[in-house]
Amino acid sequence: MDDLQCLAAQTISRVLAGRSLDAELAALWRSHAALAAQQRGAVQDMAYGTLRHLGMIDALIDRLLARPLTDDAVRPLLQVAIYQLGHTRAHAYTVVDHAVRATARLGAVRAKGLVNAVLRNYLRRRPELESAVRSNAVARYSYPQWWIDRLAAEQPEHWRSILEAGNTRPPLTLRVNRREISRDDYLARLLQADIPAAAVGRDGVIIEKPRPVTQLPGFAEGLVSVQDAGAQLAAQLLDVSDGMRVLDACAAPGGKTAHLLECATLDLTAADNDGERLQRVADNLARLKLKATLIKADAGDLRVWKNTAPFDCILADVPCTASGVVRRHPDIKWLRRPGDIAAMALQQSRILDVLLQLLGRGGKLLYATCSVFAAENGRQIEDFRARHPDARQLAMDVQLEGLNHSAGQLFPDAQHDGFFYALLEKA
Q1: Per-residue pLDDT, 405
Q2: What are the two backbone dihedrals, phi and then psi, of residue 366, each rounded to the nearest 5 degrees?
Q3: What is the pTM of this model?
Q4: Which CATH number fits domain 2-142: 1.10.940.10, 3.30.450.40, 3.40.630.30, 3.40.50.1000?
Q5: Which are the catalytic amino acids?
Q6: Assigned CATH topology for domain 172-226
Q7: Residue 177: closest CA among 291, 315, 289
Q8: Which of 133, 168, 355, 381 is most buried per CB count within 10 Å?
């Protein structure tokens, strides 16, 4: 286990230095190809869990240390070990023993005694220490203070539940490919395979006990895809029909693109400015036996769309802070900065202004984010409509628990992540 603790601690260190968790784990799997699936799962759990609860963990470490650490390798190892001791079923003695040995592996031999003392002290005093640090909001909620303050100001009735939901493990939600199988038939296949599941939304299925997708019946054959129930609302809201000319303007990794094509036979163009991520769109469509025109392009660059015929429908799933999906990407909490929200809002408004020009008269544009911040959501649409009187906002006719239809906001809960939707029509 000490090797795995080392890998998790090194991953945490790089993430807190500014790297994304997904990128770090992908690099780790490439450099340690011999790791078994169970070992990868253990490292991933340590990395994700530590980042989810980092505010509390750091507050505990600060209480336990008599003086600042002098070795940069030690704190990430303490963070991982305290996560294991506080949030997993790992045997306490084993966690401490392996952490002490991992200290030497990380080149901090002189800190072995310190690591041992800190972790044993935490075990002895855990209730007292955790009670003492909970008065601090960063420790209690495990988010940066600016994030807590902003959300409390914008969502005075919901901010606590939003923060708490972001620290839970996300559900494994599937979207049934209606071109290949009905949801009822797929639920029957799951029951036959002894995999408890429940229906959610129009095409969704939540697996009661998450597991690798390779263990799901029909995944490789394209019967289902992994997609959050909140994300599945996009295709329903656009309500496409056969023969429509459709643009998915920020398509990667392709979940919403595929869902649109599962709902109707379309002339669909999927664009994204990242070539690697666009390849993921191609791979997903191939597995699902679906076809679209893929182009590498910046949706907000009008020159890209010169001589392009108008679209009947446009999906603008724009880049955002991803503040509504932090339970799936806990590094986001610690990598985002307050100024990122305004920067994202500027990019979103640029994209919206261009896409409206590509929409045919009477056409629909669905604006979507996975954010819970107002500047990217409601305020963005208010500003857009003020700039473009010919854009009319339409009522949304879908049902999913937690969706505030008047605001277009979906807050994260046990069934889905946090999303925002606004459906617009070009007069």
Answers
A1: 62
A2: -105, 115
A3: 0.94
A4: 1.10.940.10
A5: 370
A6: Alpha-Beta Plaits (3.30.70)
A7: 289
A8: 355
